[in-house]
Amino acid sequence: xxxxxxxxxxxxxxxxxxxxxxxxxxxxxxxxxxxxxxxxxxxxxxxxxxxxxxxxxxxxxxxxxxxxxxxxxxxxxxxxxxxxxxxxxxxxxxxxxxxxxxxxxxxxxxxxxxxxxxxxxxxxxxxxxxxxxxxxxxxxxxxxxxxxxxxxxxxxxxxxxxxxxxxxxxxxxxxxxxxxxxxxxxxxxxxxxxxxxxxxxxxxxxxxxxxxxxxxxxxxxxxxxxxx
Length: 228
Known about the structure:
The chain has helices at residues 40-117, 121-131, 146-156, 191-202; strands at 140-144, 165-169, 178-181, 186-189.
């Protein structure tokens, strides 16, 4: 153990000691080092710069968010427009089909009325169909509605004078039309076929199937069948 007497200050050592004073607490530690406090103008400038930087940053972020929202809305609008276009396209097709059907009905009625008042028009149809045959056509059968056979026979003088062309009654055909059949070809000059061609050309090539009237249904002659 250490000797407690070693801690005692002797009278001869007092002259070497100096008095210690408690420093003043209120004195600034950095006083006198050259630092000056900020003035009100400097504080105002700092606040203004901070505000400007915050405004510009917020403006940029707002623009970016606004552009993103605008693009999103445009895409949604485009999707909506495309979705709305589909029903209109389908509606256009439906209207076109209905117009074609209506045109077919009206045209058929007009043709029937004209044929009723001028049944001899079938003669011109027959002549046009026969003129389309090749020169070497053989075994020509001219198929007509039974009521048109007499008119065509008298007009073309086919009765007993021309064995190359045979008239065949076909009740399936509408009055005013005909079908020419040979061993190698067939020409469809029926009323329905001619109406189909006219409507298809008028409506831009739209194909439309037309059935003969139910009142004129009946078994067709075998000689009017298409060549195999």
